[in-house]
């Protein structure tokens, strides 16, 4: 868990410098709720289970801490990878660097990651 501290400006929580990125546990601590409540709110399954006030507190804490869900952990839990394999013949050319950059940008917009597979023959695994 990364340390959560009060900022100098007031009661706004921050993550200590040099620590890992904030976790759902950090969001829960900052919002004064359980990790289960954070999971419900950030997974958009809170209605009827968590009050609107609590949900807003969780969203605000997540924003202030800069929380982003760990997509690898989520995909592992859900049993899907949401990963695209990009087979390229060479990683050293500017052209394929651009292909990768464009593919990664489009994939990210749709919630996918890109894994590179360098293959001099241009054939996948």
From TrEMBL:
One Pfam family from the record: LacI
Gene3D superfamilies: 3.40.50.2300, lambda repressor-like DNA-binding domains (1.10.260.40)
Source organism (scientific name): Streptomyces europaeiscabiei
Presence of the UniProt keyword Transcription regulation in the record: yes
Domain (HTH lacI-type): residue spans on this chain: 22-78
InterPro entries: HTH_LacI, Lambda_DNA-bd_dom_sf
Assigned keywords, A-Z: DNA-binding, Transcription, Transcription regulation
GO MF, any single term: DNA-binding transcription factor activity
Name recorded for this polypeptide: LacI family DNA-binding transcriptional regulator
Region (Disordered) location: 1-30
PANTHER family xref list: LACI-RELATED TRANSCRIPTIONAL REPRESSOR, TRANSCRIPTIONAL REGULATORY PROTEIN
Keyword Transferase among UniProt keywords: no
